[in-house]
Amino acid sequence: MQIQVKRWQPEDAAALAALFGGVDRGFLSDRLPNPYTRQDADFWLSRVQEREGHSGVYRAIWAGDQLVGMVSVDQKEDVCRKDAEISYLLLTAQWSRGIMTEAVGQTCVAAFQELDILRITGQVYDANLASRRVLEKNGFVLEGAMKNAVFKNGRLYDLCIYGKQKEQGS
Ligand SMILES: CC(C)(COP(=O)(O)OP(=O)(O)OC[C@H]1O[C@@H](n2cnc3c(N)ncnc32)[C@H](O)[C@@H]1OP(=O)(O)O)[C@@H](O)C(=O)NCCC(=O)NCCS
Fold first, then answer.
1. Is residue 21 one of the residues assigned to a domain?
2. Domain count, the chain
3. Residues 49, 70, 168, 80: is their CA dihedral positive or negative?
4. The whole model's pTM is what?
């Protein structure tokens, strides 16, 4: 599957709102607006414009003229400012085609180039095997797990902590 991993544009708001209508929220935060409106998309895109390249790297995943997913790397603050957190999601209809493995790889390269960070952290529910594979295929290492740290849809999960270190010279 040919994809393009691009920076966001303000005119992507309608596509972003539509994307959230087609994703599986089973392993996502309950903080994400649901339903996700055009106003939610406009608000998030304005935040992206402020942070892009300084305290975050944000990418849209396009397959032809369809927005199919997104990857974000948010730099942390205070004493954790050399760390950043990665998050991503993909339209359910596009799963298991290697799309997110490719998009996460490209976004991590950009994040290490553009942000003043030394590592990227991924936090994944233990049962989210596809997401764990995406991280592992991109050189993330399982550093530990927080037992029963997540309560989602009436079920408890362990929260797996993955880390990817900046390589020397990159
Ligand atoms: C997680 C997610 C981004 C994966 O994207 P994707 O493009 O389907 O992932 P890829 O195709 O690049 O790779 C998936 C890998 O997981 C494997 N996989 C998929 N489902 C699996 C399952 N149920 N059990 C074990 N492995 C599984 C695939 O075989 C593949 O590994 P392989 O290349 O070694 O065979 C996508 O499923 C998604 O958006 N889920 C909902 C949101 C979410 O969970 N976001 C992450 C929060 S941490």
1. yes
2. 1
3. positive
4. 0.97
